[in-house]
């Protein structure tokens, strides 16, 4: 299933938080970051879980787990012409 741009942004935010702190954000932190109500953040997470991109345990507030890699544009490459300066 394809993901929306917002879903890719959410996955990127989760991935960044895991990389920075070792833990995923809570739904409340996700809501604050994107300007959502808490219920909307949880709805977005459930949609990602239904699409097979996220595992959401029922008991842990920070127990979500990414499934697979974020496949949106996170980095880009530029071709290099000529020689780099010495």
From TrEMBL:
Gene3D superfamilies from the UniProt entry: Winged helix-like DNA-binding domain superfamily/Winged helix DNA-binding domain
InterPro entries hit by this protein: LexA_DNA-bd_dom, WH-like_DNA-bd_sf, WH_DNA-bd_sf
GO biological process entries: proteolysis
Single GO MF descriptor: serine-type endopeptidase activity
Pfam families given in the database record: LexA_DNA_bind
Residue span, LexA repressor DNA-binding domain: 2-63
Protein name: LexA repressor DNA-binding domain-containing protein
Organism: Solimonas marina
